[in-house]
């Protein structure tokens, strides 16, 4: 006898519960992907026959800790469907607080810069809610290809420019111009941090690790922000939950006033630099 979608999801959720905090949701997303339909569509057709072998294969990949977003090739961020590959960090819900802060502080921004754009998540979410033009950098050409593709799919291609830049290289800001708003979710994980296998084994190390204290990238980026901002410009930076004080010190040393924002879980998540 063949399983229904509902049965197959239940079994898979049990199988995944040992290794995932979101086992039921994971199983639903994988089933929708196997069926080639949206999750909401799937939820109203639960009694149909499960696509057994395809689904089982996807569940095995998830059981081996591959992120859902890598398996489905997609992650929703700030209501936008974004393409994701192993060249990019998977956009996190926690980062949506940066988009909210940016839109609140600079709703009429004319030019927005995203440093280390990855999938393009921060920039594209901001541009989809304002009229600004955007520039995004990344040192990974693979990530830039994903970000460009996302911009095109969202109809934002004409307002965005993606440039390959590595802020560890001299002259990395040359020709970028000046901006009302700079956003960035740079690497900030301590080199010896114990990460979940879902992150450690699948997401790009170059998007995560930032030296012994996780501060190397802030130390390079923050001193250059003055040159990238017009007078009155604002920077919104993602930080790790324990880094508010140390990154604030770096920012004040560069002459910025600093305010802190928390994410939905109440953890320190973003610094506003003015
Ligand atoms: N928030 C990511 C994590 O939890 C880290 C992102 C980053 O280094 N910018 O792994």
TrEMBL record:
Binding site for S-adenosyl-L-methionine: 116-120, 138, 167, 185
Residue ranges of every copy of the Methyltransferase small domain listed in the record: 95-193
Catalytic activities: L-glutaminyl-[peptide chain release factor] + S-adenosyl-L-methionine = N(5)-methyl-L-glutaminyl-[peptide chain release factor] + S-adenosyl-L-homocysteine + H(+)
Keywords tagged on the record: Methyltransferase, S-adenosyl-L-methionine, Transferase
Binding annotation for substrate: 185-188
Domain Release factor glutamine methyltransferase N-terminal: start-end pairs: 7-73
Domain of life: Bacteria
EC number: 2.1.1.297
Molecular function (Gene Ontology), one example: nucleic acid binding
NCBIfam families membership: hemK_fam, RF_mod_PrmC
Entry function: Methylates the class 1 translation termination release factors RF1/PrfA and RF2/PrfB on the glutamine residue of the universally conserved GGQ motif.
Family: Belongs to the protein N5-glutamine methyltransferase family. PrmC subfamily.
Protein name: Release factor glutamine methyltransferase
Annotated gene: prmC
